[in-house]
Amino acid sequence: MALCSITTHLSGSSISFAISDLNWDRLTDVAVGGIVLFIFVVVMVRVLGKRATAQMNNFDWIIAVATGGILASGILLRDISIIEAMVAMAVLGACQFVVTKIFVLYPKIGSIFKADPTLLVHKGVFLRDAMKRERISEEELQSRLRFAGLTDPAAANWVILEPDGKLSVIPRDDSAITEVECLADVEFDREEIEKVDVPDAPQ
């Protein structure tokens, strides 16, 4: 006899759910696996450092997604043991550590694998060709401008699509893009920039 039951009605049919019908051994395994793998991930991130969760480029994002998938599989899937999930996550973490070290020591190698930031707005003007290449719509850029507290595109000096997929908004000033050191790696079409009819900055 069921210790506790819940009955619901759906589309005219009755569905009965009994607490005693649950596989408590399986639920216990899931709970224990979740706790063990959670602790393992916390320790792994602590060992690898803050870069492990920084997602500074698309490579970091891939590692994060893959690790999350392995974590969930290790908890829920019967045919993947906790040890196997831990080994797989450790390998991914080690790969990220080694690859990011190589990127730092050998920037030219890093440039092959990492995407360059791309200029999408220059002095308040939408760069349509760049937007088409990156598949970014004007509505998405306007949304990011609003998020940055700007109500007029002309109030933005530049909007840049970063390697991690985020949009950076730099407020309007008189500086030229070629004069700003932190924009030296930003990809843009010089001819397209030169053709831009720059609007006046809003007062």
UniProtKB/TrEMBL annotation:
A Pfam match: DUF421
InterPro entries from the UniProt entry: DUF421, YetF_N
Superkingdom of origin: Bacteria
Ranges for domain YetF-like N-terminal transmembrane: 35-95
Record-annotated membrane-spanning stretches: 28-49, 61-80, 86-106
The keyword Transmembrane belongs to this UniProt entry's keyword annotation: yes
YetF C-terminal domain: residues covered: 108-180
Keyword annotations from UniProtKB, A to Z: Membrane, Transmembrane, Transmembrane helix
Signal peptide: none
Protein name per its UniProtKB record: DUF421 domain-containing protein
Organism in which the protein naturally occurs: Sphingomicrobium clamense
